[in-house]
Design goal:
The chain has about 700 residues and is of the alpha+beta class. About 50% of the residues lie in helices and about 15% in strands. It has five domains: about 150 residues; about 55 residues, no CATH class; about 120 residues, no CATH class; about 200 residues, Hypothetical protein af1432, CATH 1.10.3210; about 140 residues, no CATH class. A hairpin with a 2-residue loop joins strand 5 and strand 6. Helix 12 packs across helix 15. It is flat, with a radius of gyration of 35 Å. The two termini are about 65 Å apart.
């Protein structure tokens, strides 16, 4: 079909019809489609008033509002021959000028001469007329389809083409006209396949302008935001009529939104007797397995009610409801059986079963890991009353891994451990720590609320990091199959919150010392290298956190270079530097520190003696630095639980700046690189010590100043 080149602005639509797309793919796929089509239109000089992107389980849609009938003309200047070759001595155009004008479609009299670094050249202004919108979109639409990427794309047929799921149809319209193109054996047209039960079969769409209202008539609500709001509104209405309130989890709502094209909520019920189970045993099968929303009453208690969402209308809703009730009843019956079996045997009796559960093939069993975690957490809790509970808690914290409920619902590890511990008479602190040692489980998750739980959380994560690094299972690029970045970030967050006196650097070294014992791998990388690699990994997480907090990269580097074992102190040091970085005295301090550091790098020894001082300026710098070191150390080591606030760091930096005039005087009066080897080495060694003193808070040499 020929595409019109003239006429009014029209809408355009691209619908990629597919087999059901995984819900988790959809948001990123729609964002990518929007980005690509917007950039492609800009590059193609084709204007549209609005770019809309929609998605359902069976389709990805790009709707362009008010598309211009043609591309904008491209006006550009083309350089031709040198002016001396384009015109003769009398200024008449030569054959070179006329040939150039003819080649670009310009009149020879329209040529202009302009100076360039290579001399004068002639130029022609060339206008490239825009192509019809349909012709442009016939290129842009298939390019958009090809450009889309997915976490796990499929390949099918004999083609190399990859997409999330097989493409079954393509609808492409500009106004009432089809935009013709082929994508791997699928040709574009005006037919779409809508809701399987509400409007089965193929349906032709007359124009892009009628696409949205027509699909609504055919049982497809294309806008995911509208579907989400419809689900929320229906759930709230249905549950309010029975005195309850649906618990709308955002992640579950997102998933359900991309599982249906026409949402119809319904209320189902289950036997009230199941409410005697721990809530997790009821909610998990409901949410994670059946995609139902739980319901609570006005007092926050779970009700024997759930909200499900079907993909369709009212027809047969009673049958659908009954079927879902039956399925959930079976899942809850399983949960009750597993729970009752678990309760027959206390957690403490299950600890020995962990000897048969592999943590990692080369790193031993979960029992061995639990023992190591207990020892690490003991180091963190040294002197605290909770230390008496820590090793038993560490063993119990992993014991729920061998329970029936957790084997069936793995996401309940820690949750069920806490439940079993409480119901079996364990101390509340122990029960809470069993749950908390897994925290945080994901970005934005809660942190441990108890000291015991926090210590176990950090210990568990550091043990995992050191273990996996020791056998070479290290994240590379974006690949992180063992979620080690999450482990490192979690350890940083918890340590920052609780401000333990034992730093992450010391804890990593201790963790490395425990491997090679208790059956753990002995054939891994050297311990020192493992510790170094783990700390570099943790440092990278800390730097990312500092920059996410709005701190300059050079400030982040400066504070991390001075040590990062106590993340809370790292953040406070960084904020302290950010507070004073524009002060003149801080610039002077940084300059003095860099001056000392640059020459101190030549030192071959750390040892120096005041007895070899020959100039009063040497003695003065030594005395000033020693006094400053004592004051600064007293300030930053007067910590409670390993924490110093930014006020103390600002004061320490200000105290350091007092030595700047003394440093300046030293370099005015003292020649460091003298011929006398003993004196030279003594002066270099002292300056190395002074440089170290000046680096107690931050590495001053990394700070970048404006104009520097």
């Amino acid at each position: 079909m020929a595409i019109s080149e003239k006429g009014p602005m029209r809408d355009a639509v691209l619908e990629i019809g597919v087999e059901e797309l995984p819900a988790r793919f959809m948001r990123q796929a729609l964002a990518d489609a929007r980005t690509y089509i917007t950039d492609a239109l800009a590059s193609a000089r084709l204007e549209a008033s609005e770019v809309c992107v929609y998605g359902t389980p069976r389709r990805i849609i790009v709707l362009l509002r008010q598309v211009a009938p043609r591309q904008n003309d491209l006006v550009r200047e083309v350089r031709g021959p040198a002016a001396r070759a384009a015109y003769d001595s009398e200024g008449r155009p030569t054959r070179a000028a006329m040939g150039f004008a003819r080649s670009v479609g310009a009149a020879v009299e329209e040529l202009v001469s302009r100076p360039t670094p290579q001399g004068d050249y002639v130029y022609a202004t060339v206008t490239e007329g825009g192509r019809p919108a349909g012709a442009v979109l016939a290129e842009v639409f298939p390019q958009t389809i090809a450009a889309m990427s997915f976490p796990k794309p499929m390949r099918w047929g004999s083609h190399d083409f990859r997409f999330a799921r097989p493409i079954r149809w393509i609808l492409a319209l500009l106004g009432a006209e089809v935009i013709p193109f082929d994508t791997h054996a699928v040709s574009s047209g005006r037919a779409t396949w809508c809701h399987r039960t509400l409007a089965p079969g193929a349906h032709e769409i007359e124009s892009a302008e009628e696409y949205l209202p027509r699909l609504r008539e055919l049982g497809v609500m294309v806008d995911p935001e509208e579907r989400a709001e419809s689900i929320r509104r229906q759930a709230e209405s249905l549950t309010s009529s029975i005195g309850g309130q649906a618990v709308i989890d955002p992640e579950l709502l997102e998933e359900v939104t991309f599982l249906v094209e026409w949402p119809r909520a319904f209320v189902g019920r289950f036997a009230e007797d199941y409410l005697k189970l721990p809530e997790a045993c009821v909610i998990t099968p409901m949410k994670d397995h059946q995609r139902y929303f739980p319901v609570r009453d006005g007092r926050g208690n779970l009700m024997p009610v759930f909200v499900g969402v079907r993909n369709g209308g009212d027809l047969g809703i009673d049958i659908v409801t009954a079927g879902n009730e039956k399925v959930l009843a079976a899942r809850l019956a399983d949960a009750r059986f597993f729970y009752e079996e678990d309760m027959k045997r206390p957690l403490a009796e299950r600890v020995d079963d962990l000897r048969g559960v592999v943590f990692q093939e080369r790193l031993g069993t979960m029992y061995e890991k639990a023992v190591r975690v207990g020892r690490l957490a003991s180091d963190l809790l040294r002197g605290a009353p909770e230390a008496a509970l820590v090793e038993r808690t560490a063993l119990l914290a992993k014991a729920d891994l061998v329970t029936s409920v957790v084997r069936e619902f793995t996401e309940l590890q820690g949750v069920m451990g806490r439940e079993y511990a409480l119901r079996q008479g364990e101390d509340m602190a122990v029960a809470d720590a069993i749950f908390e040692h897994y925290l945080p489980r994901f970005a934005g998750d809660i942190l441990p609320a108890s000291l015991l739980g926090a210590a176990l959380s950090i210990a568990d994560k550091i043990d995992t990091l050191v273990g996996y690094f020791s056998i070479g299972l290290v994240p590379s690029g974006s690949a992180d199959p063992y979620a080690l970045r999450r482990q490192a970030a979690g350890a940083v967050l918890v340590h920052t919150e609780w401000r333990f006196q034992v730093g992450l650097d010391s804890l990593a070294a201790r963790a490395a010392s425990l491997f090679g014992k208790d059956g753990a791998a002995e054939d891994g990388a050297p311990r020192a290298q493992v510790v170094q690699d783990v700390l570099a990994f943790v440092r990278a997480r800390l730097k990312a956190s500092l920059e996410e907090a709005g701190l300059r990269h050079d400030i982040a580097d400066a504070v991390l270079a001075a040590g990062f074992g106590h993340p809370a102190c790292v953040f406070e040091r960084a904020h302290a530097v950010a507070q004073v970085v524009d002060e003149s005295w801080f610039a002077a301090l940084a300059t003095a520190g860099s001056r000392v550091r640059n020459i101190a790098m030549k030192a071959e020894t750390d040892a120096f003696s005041p007895a070899l001082f020959q100039d009063d300026a040497e003695r003065e710098l030594f005395d000033a630095a020693k006094s400053m070191e004592a004051d600064v150390r007293a300030s930053i080591e007067a910590r409670m639980s390993g924490f110093v606030d930014r006020t103390a760091y600002v004061s320490a930096l200000e105290r350091m700046s007092v030595v700047c005039p003394v440093i300046d005087k030293y370099f005015e009066k003292v020649m460091v690189m003298v011929d006398d080897e003993a004196v030279r080495n003594n002066r270099l060694a002292m300056l190395k010590w002074v440089s170290g003193v000046l680096s107690m808070v931050i590495d001053l040499s990394t700070i970048v100043f404006a104009g520097g």
